[in-house]
């Protein structure tokens, strides 16, 4: 599942060096460096983790004093929907909105006693590490086999044998991905592509999902600029639905559904927000969220690793423009304490990639960026129709969303030091 840390140092691109190590409890951590002296290899980030953490898969001693093997998280199959539901009870005790001096994603403090932070070095560019509180994890020695809950064949269960990782976009705890430099954004893209490639090669992984949650309204438990990468041992419901639609479309028309959607949006032009040489940003014709925009490559590309050099370079600018436009989408109204000031947008940024094996010829890489904020101080709650029946009701129109995006979209992004 991982490389030998002693040999895991290499250039991903002329601008990014990758260095992998192990944390004290055995989890993998990878630095992605774009600055000197680390990019050239003249210096190396700190690789040892001095925390006295036990091995994460070590036997657990119970209240009776008896040591027992660590329990693997479990998934249960919902026969009414056809979905696997992971039961990650240990996440109830994960870190929740810690004070600034206890931020586990911040670099280690120079000269201070080592805090219980995840990054050993006192600085970093971009870093990826296995989640300390994973909802999906493969426990050594636990076979990925289907069993029956309570002996009932109607209720299949499986180990939740995937992997979840955290990606920190910047060492500044008060920063945001929207405000990183183009060079740093390129490093993030290289890290996403590299982790997707590595996790796609893990036995049993069916799908890799790179995403970012931002804002307390979304449910973020740590405000440090970061995202996550999930490697699922099953196809997610959203992907399953898209694949079903795409296969039916191909049988009916001979075309690729996501390619045909992009071409239809380009012909219409009404909801196209921005275009570049290799990418198109548009609000989908049936957008359901109060703020939503999709970003798709012009070329048929299954996933992030398949992007070529030109597409990756071009993605930097248009993605940063979309993120910065989101932070201009709403402003505080007249008469309020912060009248006229832009509102930092709470959002989910989700990279939809083709599955590892199934459906790669039918599904196509695209980004879905959306927010539950429908107006200043007002959220889109999933009430009875949406939550109970999955029957969506939109509070706006895609055309209004597109018009607003075009109004606030910056013309370009600058390279700052």
From TrEMBL:
Q: In which pathway does it act?
A: Carbohydrate metabolism; galactose metabolism
InterPro entries the UniProt entry points to:
GalP_UDPtransf1, GalP_UDPtransf1_His-AS, GalP_Utransf_C, GalP_Utransf_N, HIT-like_sf
Q: What class of enzyme is it?
A: transferase
Q: Name one GO cellular component term.
A: cytoplasm
One GO MF term, please? Answer: zinc ion binding
* GO terms classed as biological process: galactose catabolic process via UDP-galactose, Leloir pathway
Q: Which cofactor does it need?
A: Zn(2+)
Q: Which residues belong to any copy of the Galactose-1-phosphate uridyl transferase N-terminal domain?
A: 72-235
Question: What EC number(s) is this enzyme filed under?
Answer: 2.7.7.12
The entry sums up its family as follows: Belongs to the galactose-1-phosphate uridylyltransferase type 1 family.
What's the name of the protein? Answer: Galactose-1-phosphate uridylyltransferase
């Amino acid at each position: 599942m991982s490389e030998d840390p002693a040999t895991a140092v290499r250039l991903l691109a002329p601008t990014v060096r990758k260095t992998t190590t192990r944390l004290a409890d055995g989890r993998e951590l990878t630095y992605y460096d774009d600055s000197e002296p680390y990019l050239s290899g003249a210096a190396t980030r700190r690789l040892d983790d001095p925390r006295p953490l036990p091995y994460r898969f070590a036997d657990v001693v119970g209240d009776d004093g008896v040591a027992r093997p660590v329990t693997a998280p479990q998934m249960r199959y919902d026969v009414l929907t056809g979905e696997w539901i992971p039961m990650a009870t240990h996440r109830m005790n994960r870190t929740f909105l810690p004070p600034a001096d206890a931020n586990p994603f911040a670099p280690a403090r120079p000269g201070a006693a080592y805090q219980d932070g995840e990054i050993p070095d006192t600085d970093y560019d971009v870093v990826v590490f296995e989640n300390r509180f994973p909802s999906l994890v493969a426990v050594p020695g636990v076979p990925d086999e289907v069993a029956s809950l309570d002996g009932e064949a109607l209720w299949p269960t499986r180990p939740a044998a995937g992997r979840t990782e955290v990606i920190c976009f910047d060492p500044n705890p008060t920063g945001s991905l929207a405000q990183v430099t183009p060079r740093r954004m390129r490093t993030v893209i290289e890290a996403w592509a590299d982790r997707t490639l590595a996790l796609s090669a893990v036995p049993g992984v069916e799908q890799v999902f790179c995403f970012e949650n931002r804002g307390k309204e979304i449910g973020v438990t740590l405000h440090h600029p970061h995202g996550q990468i999930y490697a699922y041992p099953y196809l997610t419901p959203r992907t399953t639905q898209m694949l079903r639609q795409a296969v039916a479309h191909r049988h009916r028309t001979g075309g690729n559904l996501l390619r045909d959607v992009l071409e239809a949006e380009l012909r219409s032009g009404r909801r196209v927000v921005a275009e570049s040489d290799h990418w198109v940003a548009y609000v989908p014709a049936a957008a359901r969220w109060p703020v939503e925009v999709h970003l798709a490559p012009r070329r048929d590309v299954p996933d992030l690793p398949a992007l070529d050099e030109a597409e990756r370079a071009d993605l930097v600018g248009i993605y940063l423009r979309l993120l910065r436009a989101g932070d201009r989408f709403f402003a505080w109204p007249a008469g309020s304490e912060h009248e006229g000031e832009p509102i930092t947008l709470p959002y989910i940024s989700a990279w939809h990639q083709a599955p590892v094996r199934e459906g790669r010829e039918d599904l196509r890489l695209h980004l879905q960026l959306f927010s539950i904020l429908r107006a200043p101080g007002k959220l889109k709650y999933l009430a009875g129709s949406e939550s109970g029946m999955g029957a969506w009701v939109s509070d706006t129109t895609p055309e209004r969303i597109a018009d607003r995006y075009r109004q606030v979209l910056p013309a370009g992004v600058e390279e700052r030091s």
